[in-house]
Amino acid sequence: xxxxxxxxxxxxxxxxxxxxxxxxxxxxxxxxxxxxxxxxxxxxxxxxxxxxxxxxxxxxxxxxxxxxxxxxxxxxxxxxxxxxxxxxxxxxxxxxxxxxxxxxxxxxxxxxxxxxxxxxxxxxxxxxxxxxxxxxxxxxxxxxxxxxxxxxxxxxxxxxxxxxxxxxxxxxxxxxxxxxxxxxxxxxxxxxxxxxxxxxxxxxxxxxxxxxxxxxxxxxxxxxxxxxxxxxxxxxxxxxxxxxxxxxxxxxxxxxxxxxxxxxxxxxxxxxxxxxxxxxxxxxxxxxxxxxxxxxxxxxxxxxxxxxxxxxxxxxxxxxxxxxxxxxxxxxxxxxxxxxxxxx
Length: 344
Hints:
Helix content is about 25%, strand content about 25%. It is α/β, with parallel strands linked by helices. It has two domains: about 10-145 and about 280-330, Ribonuclease Z/Hydroxyacylglutathione hydrolase-like (Metallo-beta-lactamase, Chain A); about 150-275, 3-Layer(aba) Sandwich (Rossmann fold), CATH 3.40.50. A seven-stranded mixed sheet has the order 7-8-9-10-11-17-18, covered by helices on one side. The chain has a six-stranded mixed sheet with strand order 1-2-3-4-5-6, with no helix packed on it. Mean pLDDT is about 95; it is low at about 330-344. Keywords: Exonuclease, Hydrolase, Ligase, Nuclease. This is Ligase-associated DNA damage response exonuclease.
């Protein structure tokens, strides 16, 4: 329930800061938008002015084109209409940020999407002390508990190696922004060539331009020896697995890398041969640890398992409530990227 003097409230356009007169990740066009990261449900076209963390510039421009973008280094503060604003690493994807707001002696933090697990491709999550914490809860159920990345990458490498011996391509469906680059950073490129879908390539370019090392990749049209396709690891959005694009690889084994693979039946419903549980969001212990590290006594929960998380936090003695937002899961992001980018 909104309280007098709240630094962030709900409006039809999105999450609004009344004293600062700006929005955080608005879903309708506004004059001033603070963007936590470049996924399509958080960074939309049509705002008058964008503010984002400096490492996000390349991916934002890759996705949104020519926008009026102001960037801010992590930890550096600016003041707008008396609100002191700074951006802090969220560990979700390249350039992802939590938004810290300070006004009249109160501190609020809006997390955006975040994960606490290590990731070679982006700055690690940084707990920020605050009075009120707005947290995501995409995987806000106790069943979600992630294994270490090294174990998952070892599983992917073993699957890829087995497919090379069998003479079939290893097609790994993953979100084009964030997940694909994280996988590239962890797999063993000596196993075979790596081919990426047209939705993935511009994001790879943006990551490399930001100084993130990634192994060499090719588009399918750049592969001269067709035999290489039978040894390849192929990274593509989920929508591409059901398209005619896949036919050019011949015999394939398909897999999907996502936190949703922890649910029984998710792999079967998608028609994948394998599922790798790899998420760019915090799991249940990660969410609780991040919330606890803020020291916040009031927590506002957004997209995901909101009622479960709110109830649990209330049982722990915190003041908890939910915000209704139009942020979706990353499947929406993946399909949007596939539709907007060339498939070649």
